[in-house]
Amino acid sequence: MGKKTIRIGIVGAGANTKSRHIPGFQAIDDVEIVGVVNSTPASTEKVARKYGIPQTYSSWQELVEDPEIDAVMIGTWPNLHCDITCMALESGKHVLTEARMACNLAEAEKMLKYSQARPDLIAQVVPSPFGMKYNQEVIKLISQTYLGILREVVVLGADDAFWDYSNKLHWRQDKEISGNNVLTLGILHETLSRWVPPTERVFAQSSIFEPQRPSSHGQGNADVTIPESLQVVTRLQGGANAIYHLSGSILFGPGLQIHLYGDHGTIKVQFTPEEKLFVGHLGEDQMKEIQIPKEEEGFWRVEAEFIGAIRGEEIVHFTDFATGVKYMEFTEAVALSSEKNEPVTLPL
Hints:
Blueprint: E1 6-11, H1 15-26, E2 31-37, H2 41-51, E3 55-56, H3 60-65, E4 71-74, H4 81-90, E5 94-97, H5 105-116, E6 123-125, H6 135-143, E7 150-158, H7 175-178, H8 185-193, E8 199-207, E9 212-214, E10 221-223, E11 229-236, E12 241-247, E13 255-262, E14 265-270, E15 276-281, E16 288-289, H9 302-310, H10 321-340, E17 344-345
Parallel strand pairs: 1-2, 1-4, 2-3, 4-5, 5-6, 7-12
Antiparallel strand pairs: 7-13, 8-11, 8-17, 9-10, 11-12, 13-14, 14-15, 15-16
Helix pairs in contact: 4-5, 5-10, 8-10
């Protein structure tokens, strides 16, 4: 006899939902994606046909209210995450929401409050995929004091993703849609937070180089309302300093990396174009790439973890709502510091 079938409803079928979440759920026994609603009726029908989803809806509210659905997967832009999450939890449904968790800290805290009111339901944020492959190896090295005392952290997320100003305004450049989520700040900080102590102070500065781009909704131009370049200096609990260099508007940038510098060793994790781990220790001449057995590598299993948590077989490791609120608090502090041109102390 099989397990009770868990029935999933999809709200928002963007690129990540189609490439990861739908195949991930469809690969799990006794899980069915029973309904979908996308941004338009035409795109809803297209997704339903392509992935064999039997039910379509005219609105996300209609899907959330359907008593035949057990869990809601939210794949929309951040501006809808809070409203859909809160309504789904109130309706007695488990929630897996795409990252970033919300537009701002207030929304994230509201989502956490609603989840705490329904502890019988699973509330999970799609985690940062960066660092999953070598997460346990980095944690092991740190626990074995490979670094010694942590002195400095460097977070790099700088490339040419938005360098071409003739391209239409991307939703990640529109604050009404993306909120305080700037470039890769949240996704890299979430990864870093798995390895280092919490941040206690931030100071940030930001720039928008080209204030307008062609509108994605018709003729004319639209305002760029999210920074194209961001630098953040932080202090971690315990005294280490951190520097974040984030940009979408530079050529031949370093891509996405995290460096951890201690008084006895260094750990560097490169995320693009593929994840690699480099280490160097006191007395050695140069850094070396670490290779670990395939069976020890971490991998993407977000959908399986969500279903396992619903069934009571495991807990959510990546990423529960409380963890999501923490990285949203960090992005909020960065936004405040940049706006006021002054340091901001955490927690807020």
